[in-house]
């Protein structure tokens, strides 16, 4: 019986050590971001986290102000984050400027994204070449999907679209060759041509 209590004690200490060393929260802190004040709140311009968080939850507020915009290069080429939850305070993922290599999550290793239920716009190049992404649910609040937003997401299979979409930009789903039939038809029904 004494050995069992000893073993239990050792296991408990080991588990506590792991949580202390690696953290148990996926919510990033204010120091993990560069940001700027905009009229609606804060725009995240860059994620500077140390890479220990793989499943990132973007905070609703930073320094008491709501996060409302994800900037056009905030998470570009991030190979450490595999899933991200965007808080419901975010209303826009900013356009990537034309003729540049930007886009909010461009060329990242994301395989899972939970978008804000209040998101109105998915800007151009936002998820360009996110090859690990297999499915996405676009909330009903979204009215605009910018040009090339999901272009090159070669493993994207399932897209659940907002019923409120009024605009899908050129090449928004270009080179998404693995879309299932239901997603393909739903995108086409909105006037998008592959």
Could you walk me through the main structural features you see in this protein, from its secondary elements to its overall organization?
There is one protein chain. The chain has about 190 residues and is α/β, with parallel strands linked by helices. It has a single domain, classed as Ribonuclease Inhibitor (Leucine-rich repeat, LRR (right-handed beta-alpha superhelix), Alpha-Beta Horseshoe). It contains 2 helices and 13 strands, in the order αβββββββββββββα. Strands 1, 2, 4, 5, 7, 9, 11 and 13 form an 8-stranded mixed beta sheet that branches. It has a 3-stranded parallel beta sheet with strand order 3-6-8, with no helix packed on it. About 10% of the residues have low confidence.
Nutshell version of this structure?
The protein is built from two helices and 13 strands, in the order H-E-E-E-E-E-E-E-E-E-E-E-E-E-H.
Main traits of this protein?
about 190 residues, 8-stranded mixed beta sheet, Leucine-rich repeat, LRR (right-handed beta-alpha superhelix), alpha/beta, 3-stranded parallel beta sheet
**What is the number of helical segments per DSSP (H or I, 4+ residues)?**
2
- Average pLDDT across residues? 88
Structural class: alpha/beta
State the CATH architecture.
Alpha-Beta Horseshoe
Number of domains: 1
Extended strand count: 13
Q: What's the CATH superfamily, by name?
A: Ribonuclease Inhibitor
